[in-house]
Amino acid sequence: MVIKEVTVLNATGLHARPASMFVQTAGKFKSKIFVIKEENSINAKSIMGIMAGGISQGTTVQIKAEGEDEAAAVDALVELINNKFGE
């Protein structure tokens, strides 16, 4: 299991286009991937879950993955967030 903490920096948070990019990236990996916000664990491959998660600009979350490509999955998603989804 790999867990990394990251703060969402882009203006819209994980909503609409960034949420779609996040879920598409997560979907490329075989591992089970979750976004942990406070006490909530959200399936990173679920667009509805991510959008309903209320993850706005300035929110700190943990990206957790478990499986054969867990490290690559977490690194890719953290990089996506740190790069502000290309904004």
TrEMBL record:
GO CC term (a single one): cytoplasm
Pfam families: PTS-HPr
Places the protein is found: Cytoplasm
Name used for this protein in its record: Phosphocarrier protein HPr
PROSITE patterns the record matches: PTS_HPR_DOM, PTS_HPR_HIS
Residue intervals of the HPr domain: 1-87
InterPro entries cross-referenced by the UniProt entry: HPr, HPr-like, HPr-like_sf, PTS_HPr_His_P_site
Any one of the GO BP annotations: phosphoenolpyruvate-dependent sugar phosphotransferase system
Chief location: cytoplasm
UniProt keyword terms in alphabetical order: Cytoplasm, Phosphotransferase system
Lineage, highest ranks first: Bacteria, Bacillati, Bacillota, Clostridia, Eubacteriales
Protein purpose: General (non sugar-specific) component of the phosphoenolpyruvate-dependent sugar phosphotransferase system (sugar PTS). This major carbohydrate active-transport system catalyzes the phosphorylation of incoming sugar substrates concomitantly with their translocation across the cell membrane. The phosphoryl group from phosphoenolpyruvate (PEP) is transferred to the phosphoryl carrier protein HPr by enzyme I. Phospho-HPr then transfers it to the PTS EIIA domain.
Keyword Cytoplasm recorded: yes
CDD domains (UniProt xref): PTS-HPr_like
The species this protein was found in: Acetobacterium bakii
